[in-house]
Write a sequence for this structure.
């Protein structure tokens, strides 16, 4: 019997990102076992599209973009009714946060997103330095952050390097700063949560991102930082003209 393919965590993350950009799909989570074999693909999609067609789109997308062969029987599609303009929350639901204190950004499902390429952390007795490489619309950008203060968390240095890579493609009117980065435990799962402060037009707004630990803590920090920023790309000004590839 032919064994099932095993995939590294970074490829699984890329697969989730690609599937989430399929028309009608709002989110995707891929479950794997301890050896990297895919056990199930959980997809949330609009109920206006038949579940079988969504599953076929997911299967085709993974094969065409990443060369991943996935059994369609492992794809689980949860249909969700689209919210109509002016429609409020379901009857009986509760909102515990005052609307005046919440700044909402529309989710740009199909906008080009920053994708992870690599992360490196260099530590010596005198300093720490992180390098993060990202790609967006085939443009590769590199962010660096360093410190001689060894009491600073390495996770923070990685987060700052990630934001500097993102900043390479943002207009000068937009500033991203790292508020907090913490490793937390959710039940029996390790995760990283990040707060990014976005400064624009003399206003500062906070964004939050989270990523489940994926074998490499530095890579997880990058994913959590991207989670905070990628979902608001439609509200960011990406006006810098980058006509070269940074290596």
């Amino acid at each position: 019997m032919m064994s099932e393919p095993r995939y590294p965590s970074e490829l699984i993350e890329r697969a989730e990102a690609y599937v989430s950009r399929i028309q009608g799909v709002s989110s995707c989570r891929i479950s794997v076992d301890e050896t990297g074999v895919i056990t199930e693909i959980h997809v949330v999609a609009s109920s206006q599209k038949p579940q079988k067609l969504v599953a076929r789109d997911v299967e085709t997308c993974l094969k065409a973009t990443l060369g991943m062969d996935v059994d369609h029987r492992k794809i689980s599609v949860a249909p969700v009714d689209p919210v109509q303009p002016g429609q409020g929350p379901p009857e009986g639901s509760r909102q515990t946060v005052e609307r005046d204190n919440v700044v909402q950004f529309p989710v740009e499902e199909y906008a080009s997103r920053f994708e992870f390429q690599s992360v490196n952390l260099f530590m010596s007795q005198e300093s720490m330095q992180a390098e993060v490489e990202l790609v967006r619309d085939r443009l590769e950008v590199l962010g660096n952050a360093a410190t001689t203060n060894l009491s600073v968390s390495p996770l923070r240095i990685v987060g700052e390097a990630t934001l500097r890579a993102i900043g390479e493609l943002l207009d000068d009117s937009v500033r991203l700063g790292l508020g907090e980065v913490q490793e937390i435990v959710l039940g029996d799962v390790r995760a990283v949560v990040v707060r990014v402060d976005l400064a624009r037009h003399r206003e500062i707004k906070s964004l939050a991102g989270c990523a489940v630990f994926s074998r490499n803590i530095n890579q997880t920090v990058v994913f959590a930082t991207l989670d905070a920023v990628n979902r608001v790309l439609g509200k960011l000004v990406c006006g810098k003209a980058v006509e070269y590839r940074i290596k």
